Structures are given as C-alpha cells and as structure tokens.
Amino acid sequence: MSIIINNLSKSYNNKLVLDNLSLTINKGSVFGLLGPNGAGKTTLVSILNQLINKDSGSIEIFGFNIETNSCEIKQISSYIPQTYAFYPNLSAFENLEFFGALYGLKGELLKQQIAYCIETTGLTKFIHAKAGTFSGGVKRRLNIAIGLLNSPKIIYLDEPTVGIDPQSRKYILDVIKNLNKTKETTIVYTSHYMDEIEYLCDEIAILDHKKIILQEKHSFPLKKQSLLKIQLEKSSIQMDVSDSYDEFMAFVANLKQENKKILSLDFLNENSNSLENRFLSLTKEELRD
Amino acid sequence: MFYYILKKEFRLIFRDIHALLVLFLMPAAFILIMSLALKNSYSNTLEVPLKVALTAPETPEINLFLKELSHNAYFEVTLVSKSSLKKLLFEEKYDFALHLDENYKEKINKNDKTFTIQIYSKPDTNKEYLSILKHSIVEVISKNIMKDYFIASKKDASLLGKLDSTVVNTYVYKNNKQETTPTSVQQSVPAWLIFSMFFILIPISNTFVNEKNFGTLARIRSINVSVFPLLTGKILPYFIINQIQVVLMLLMGIFLVPLVGGDALIIQGNYFLIFFVTSCVSIAAICFALFIANISKTTEEATSIGGVINIIFAALGGIMVPKFIMPEFMQQISAYSPMSWGLESLLELFVRGGNFSDISVYLLYLLLFAAVFLLLSYILLKKGRN
Known about the structure:
The complex is a heterodimer.
Chain A: E1 3-12, E2 15-25, E3 30-34, H1 41-48, E4 56-61, E5 64-65, H2 70-76, E6 77-80, H3 92-102, H4 107-120, H5 136-147, E7 154-158, H6 166-183, E8 186-190, H7 194-200, E9 203-208, E10 211-217, E11 227-232, E12 236-240, H8 246-257, E13 262-267, H9 275-283
Parallel strand pairs in A: 3-8, 3-9, 6-7, 7-8
Antiparallel strand pairs in A: 1-2, 1-4, 4-5, 9-10, 11-12, 11-13
Helix pairs in contact in A: 3-4
Chain B: H1 2-14, H2 17-37, H3 39-42, E1 50-55, H4 60-70, E2 75-80, H5 85-91, E3 96-99, H6 104-109, E4 118-121, H7 127-152, H8 158-166, H9 184-198, H10 201-214, H11 216-222, H12 227-259, H13 271-295, H14 299-316, H15 328-334, H16 338-350, H17 356-385
Parallel strand pairs in B: 1-2, 1-3
Antiparallel strand pairs in B: 3-4
C-alpha cells in the first residue's frame, strides 16, 4: 500500500470536515478522489501534504508515519495545487531552478532534472519566457513540471486541468498516464471532470459529508448506451444509437420518402451507468456551497 | 539552497518596477523638494527677501530709518510715495506696507499716546515674518532714540551700532567635534529615508500575498525545507535593499542636493552607529511588513492598510512636519511612532553629535517593535496550519 489512512478526523472552528475517514491507496495506482464542493477533498490532500494538522487518526505513506517521519514523506511526495503555484515574474527555467534548489538539488543534478521536467511537459519553447505571459495550458504544464523535480513516488494533483483547452488537457492527461506507467508513480488525482477520472484512474473514492461513501476499482462502462425515443404522429419508436447513427439516418430518410414527420426526439438513458450518473445518485443532486 | 532563495527574491524585487519607484524615486523626490522647501526655515536669511513698501515723506530721519531697517537680510525696503494699500500689496506684490510718521521720534519722545506705526499685510502673511518685521522696526527706532540720548549726554554711542554683532549663538554638540550648522537637508535626508524604508512593505506584501494566494507558499511548505532559510531568505534581501536605499539617499544629500541649490548633507557621526540605526529601522520595517502581508488577503489590501499606517507613522513621527514645530501634546504622541525612533536616532547622530547611549533607547524600541510583529506573523502562520 502507498497510503493507509485510519479514522482521520479534522474540524475547523468546531465544524467537523472529516469524520473518522479511512482509506487505502495502492502503490503505483492512479487514484481518483471525487466529491462535491466542500466535501473535504482539499482538506484531505492538505493533511496528506502536511499543510494542515489533523485532529486525530493515523496516516502512513509508503510505510512512513506522517507524525514521526514527516521529512521522509516530504522527500518522496509532490503536491501540485490547482492554482498556478509558481512566480509569474520569473521565467519557467528560473521557477524550476528555485523549486529544484528547495528540493535540495544542485549543480549538474539540478540541470539534468530541470531538463527532464522541461522535456516531459513539453516546455522547451517556453523556458526563458516569463511564466506570467503563458497561456493557461502552458501554465498548467509548468505547474506539473515543478512537481516532477524531486522524482516523487507519489504525486497529488488537485484539479490540474481546470480552465484549459482540450489539446492541453489531453497532453496533461497523457503526461500523467505516462508517469504512472513508466515510473510507477502513485497518482492521487482530484477532479470534477468524470471523463478524466474514467480515462486515467484505476481506482476511485467518492468523498461526501465528511466520509468516503464509495471506494472501488475501475469498473466503468467504456461503451455509451444511448436510447433514442422518436415520436411520430401516430406512434413512437425507440432506437439504440450507442454505436452509430447510421440506422437512425436511414430511418429518417425512409420517413421522408413516406412523407411522415418526426414530432420530437429524446434520449432516454444516455450512459445511465456512467460515473457522472453514479456520482450524482450517490451524492444527491442538490447544489453545494 | 540559500543562494537560490536569495537569487529568486532579488529577481522578484528588481522586476517589480512599481515597488522600486516607491523605494528609490519617492524618497529621492521628497529629499530634493523638502530640502529646498524648508531651506529658509533653517537659515538666518531668506532666499528672496521680503518686500517692504515704506510710505513716508523722504526726510533725513526717514532715510536713516530705511537704511537701518535694510540692514536686516530678511527685508528689502523701498520708500514709496503714498499709494493705495491694495495696489501695493496685490499689484506691486509687496509683502508688507509700512506707514511711518515723519516726526515719529518726536512723538515717541513726547510720549504721544495716539502715536502708532502701521503695518499692512495680506491675510495669509506668515506670522513669524510679521513678528520679525515688528521687532526689527522697534529695534531700529529704539537704537535711534538711544543714539540721540547718548549724543546729548556726550557719551560714546559706537557700541549701539555693533550691538547686533555682540549677540553670538554657538551650537553645542554632544561630541564636541562638530562644526556643522543644522540645515534642511540634515532633517530631510534622515526623515524621508526612514519613510521610504518602511515602504519596503510594498515588495514584501506583493511577493508574500501572491505566494499565499497562488498556492506557492503551500507548495513550498509541502517541500522538505526548514523555516530558517526561508525566513532569512525573505528578510535578508529586503534588508539589503533598505541598506542600498540608505547609501543612495545619503549620497544624494551629499552630492545632488547642493547641485540644485540646497545645502550639502554633512555626516560627522559614527558610520558604524548609522549602519546600526538603519539596520534596526530596516528590521522593524520588514517585520511590520510581514505582519501586514500576513493579515491581508490581497496585495491591494496590504498596500492600502500598510500605506495608510505608514503615513500616520510619518505624520506623527516628525517625518512630514519637523517635530520641533509641533505643539507639546503632538510631540508626546510622536514618541509612539517607530519612524520617530528612527528619525530621532539619526538626528542625534547627524545633527546633535550624539553617541550610542543617546540612541540606545530608540534602538531598543525599534527591536521590540520588530520582535512583536515577527511573533504575531509567526502565530498567524502557525494558526493557518491548524
């Protein structure tokens, strides 16, 4: 196991945020941590990264106790926040140089590690430009590059694809997937994008109302099941368009020949077993603060 | 690692153009302007003498009065024929119009109770200048009457003409070495230097608040690095920037201010003590800035809260208005401003020739001030973890 959490509790100003939470994360897995806003995801990730103190419970990361082996845990972990956690007035290289030095790298090793991070995240073109001038996608890649400097065994990624274009998003997801495959890095990934979780993660947990309400291995349906209800003047027909719309197009052409009209079209159960639908049914659909 | 922390902080400071303008251009401008503006307040003469229109008939007595009043370097006296007061003051730009009776001595000798010497001036006339003019008139008339009396009594009246030069003032310095006279630049340089040192708040809060808001601080804290290099890496660059300010502003007072017509700054105090004072001021300013950056959510909030407090410190501390012209109760309030502790220490060294024992209490206050705000910052940071 890479992370074992037992009976973790945390409260702010007498308000309980995590209540006796227990969770295990396998070594080398990509673990998706889901939950509505205010569910306690950020608090959990902050405790795991020792940014805030827990009230009670125990945490072991790669066999190290978070209280007694704080330094060892920090050496093998990397936290990549949702915000652009770097200096916009410094260039990409200067940012990497600074954070690399904080990780204790120096000399040739620092240079090599910077070169590796730049190459892995595709930042070669941008190394000497000020980070503040980058597009959202490049900023996200720099955010990740900094997190790779210490060759971590475990990376915490907090919504790393918010506000970027589909190309950058795909690139970042591939970088993460590749890291997990080639270096066997354990990834703890929080996101609101269910398709990303489906694409990346081999295990998920849903956190809501201070507790883990679901933890399971990847078992997501890869094929979408979409049932189309076609309302005609005197009858209605249901058609499965999961694989293609060819049959539907042929049906429409036929109706045209027969001079018949379609009154309405409705999808009955688009991907009813999707992660998003399961997430909504587990966490209820009411809006969160 | 420490080298890279310093490198990063210096890069950030030198790329923050607005902060650099506030730290270097603002005090430079203030020193130049205030050294020139206050020049007359510290000297015995005026750059441009005050114009006095004497309205009286041209008689030997009046000419003598005019000649003797003109000896006073503050006034340029002109005998004018009777004219409208408004015309003299508002059109011909005289500062004062003075009407003197041609038989003034006779009336005084006869103890004529109705006799007056009338001075006319604009409502916004400086009361000190009016007072100097009144005393000068009384002095000239008294001397003339005394002279007549001495001559009538067949006594030697020559000393009367030299009386003014027999009254001599000597500045007393604590170290018995100095031969400088207090000038406006001697007040302006330390005052605006200390004011600008406290504005280190701007780059500190810009960096620190952004680190907090962008998650950079959280990221740094998640890395295995101890607080000591981080804290010293934060304090040392700003301390160095403050010392660069000190050197540049002193050089400006010595070389640049005289070039534009002001007096030159003369430093005869102990250089080590000056460095010690500016170090204490710098540490106080940095710790205060760290506290403000800690309690602020945005850089705008930090610069507005910190800026307003700094201006209040300056107004109370004798930076904007020299302390000696403040009323007693304001001088007492002034003793609570950290800028006043810094300014008084530098004035002790620059102007009064003081030594360590004269400034030790101010240095202690500054270091206590720094310790309190550093502790508060630490508590706030610690509170964030819980």
